[in-house]
Automatic annotation (TrEMBL):
GO terms for cellular component: cytosol. Poorly processive, error-prone DNA polymerase involved in untargeted mutagenesis. Copies undamaged DNA at stalled replication forks, which arise in vivo from mismatched or misaligned primer ends. These misaligned primers can be extended by PolIV. Exhibits no 3'-5' exonuclease (proofreading) activity. May be involved in translesional synthesis, in conjunction with the beta clamp from PolIII. Keywords: Cytoplasm, DNA damage, DNA repair, DNA replication, DNA-binding, DNA-directed DNA polymerase, Magnesium, Metal-binding, Mutator protein, Nucleotidyltransferase, Transferase. Its cofactor is Mg(2+). Residues 7-188 form the UmuC domain. NCBIfam families: PRK02406.1. It holds the Pfam family IMS_HHH_1. It catalyses: DNA(n) + a 2'-deoxyribonucleoside 5'-triphosphate = DNA(n+1) + diphosphate. The active site is at residue 107. This is DNA polymerase IV. Monomer. The record marks 16 as: Substrate discrimination. Belongs to the DNA polymerase type-Y family. The gene is dinB.
Length: 353
């Protein structure tokens, strides 16, 4: 266990909504969310804390959110504005360390183990980052400080919004024991139900579970779960996060009924995909075609096929038929894209003339 590391996880509080409230203070005391209009079958990106009191959450269909909170103001959002705020935050991070792993526009890990700022105090660094983001960007962020990424991420959520939680090495085991298993990355609803059937609800419960039984239920995932339950996470903060795919998707106003209706919208999606790829210079990295369908019961399926030689958009029609055949239910969303392989390393040509 690497107990000498100093890892900070920074997470902006309801980021998109916070930017909108910053720019229009009249929005601060009313329920707002970022997303599409209720008549378009969109989902919300985020909601402010006033809206969350009503049960409104990110990734919730707009229509459901409006039923929960009829007074909810849904704002289309402005990605250019959000990206600018994210860049301002990243610039602040770089004043303290170069070892930064962005997870999204509003979230990042920082390794400050070797930072000389504030005599190397990760707590003081986190406090200063929070103060500067508030002063320079105009929003609040929450932070978690710990010896590893898993605990730092959970800690950043512990006192949200606008909170700071520090977990020292001697507090680590007790802190982890109180963490609900649903906070472990990769534990979704199905995994939670499996663990609940074993009377496992917290990391303390997971610590007591026989590893052979855990492995029987979760296979190769069991070791990572057992390590996290003990507070062990040796993953480094990775500076370069390579793009692994490029894709577009569309949620339809009305469910698509039958394969022919699905095939009819494919040219539109492929045109959008080509626009998304323009200027990205990733053609040499394209390794697989992939297609995703979400059915009207919100279950989704993905199919992939390796790119053999030259590109052939007709492959997407074949993948669409394969995906649709898995359920044959009305379709609410289709996504198309490419998986990317890592870029080839540069070859240096040396001249000895």
């Amino acid at each position: 266990m690497l107990l000498n590391r100093k890892i900070i996880h920074i997470d902006a509080d309801c980021f998109y909504a916070a930017i909108e409230m910053r720019d229009d203070p009249s929005l601060r005391d009313i329920p707002i969310a970022i997303g599409g209009s209720v008549d378009r079958r969109s989902v919300l990106s985020t909601a402010n804390y006033v809206a969350r009191v009503f049960g409104v959450r990110s990734a919730m269909p707009t229509s459901v959110a409006k039923r929960l909170c009829p007074s909810l103001l849904v704002i289309p959002g402005d990605m250019a504005k959000y990206r600018l705020a994210s860049q301002q935050m990243q610039a602040i991070f770089r004043d303290f360390t170069d070892i930064i792993e962005p997870l999204s526009l509003d979230e990042a890990y920082l390794d400050v183990t070797d930072s000389v700022h504030f005599q190397g105090s990760a707590t003081r660094i986190a406090e200063e980052i929070r103060a500067r983001v508030f002063e320079e960007v105009g929003i609040t962020v929450s932070a978690g400080v710990a010896t590893n990424k898993f605990i730092a991420k959970v800690a950043s959520d512990w006192k949200k919004p606008d909170g700071l939680t520090v977990v020292t090495p001697d507090q680590q085991f007790e802190f982890v024991s109180n963490i609900p298993v649903k906070s472990i990355s990769g534990i979704g609803r199905v995994a939670q139900e499996k663990l609940a059937s074993l009377d496992v609800f917290s990391c303390a419960d997971l610590q007591k579970l026989d590893f052979a039984l855990l492995q029987k239920k979760f296979g190769s995932m069991a070791f990572r779960l057992s390590q996290f339950a003990l507070g062990v996470d040796n993953r480094p903060v990775t500076v370069s996060r390579e793009r692994k795919s490029i894709s577009v998707e569309h949620t339809f106003l009305k469910d698509l009924l039958g394969l022919n209706e699905c095939l009819a919208v494919l040219p539109m999606l492929l045109a959008d995909l080509k626009k998304r790829m323009a200027g990205k210079k990733v053609e040499s990295q394209l390794s697989k075609y992939y297609l995703k369908i979400k059915f009207d019961d919100f279950k989704q399926t993905t199919v992939e096929q390796s790119i053999k030689s030259k590109f052939n958009d007709d492959i997407f029609s074949i993948l669409l038929a394969q995906a649709y055949a898995r359920s044959r239910r009305p379709v609410r969303l289709i996504g198309v894209g490419y998986r990317l392989s890592p870029p080839e390393p540069l070859q240096l040509v040396l001249s000895f003339d």
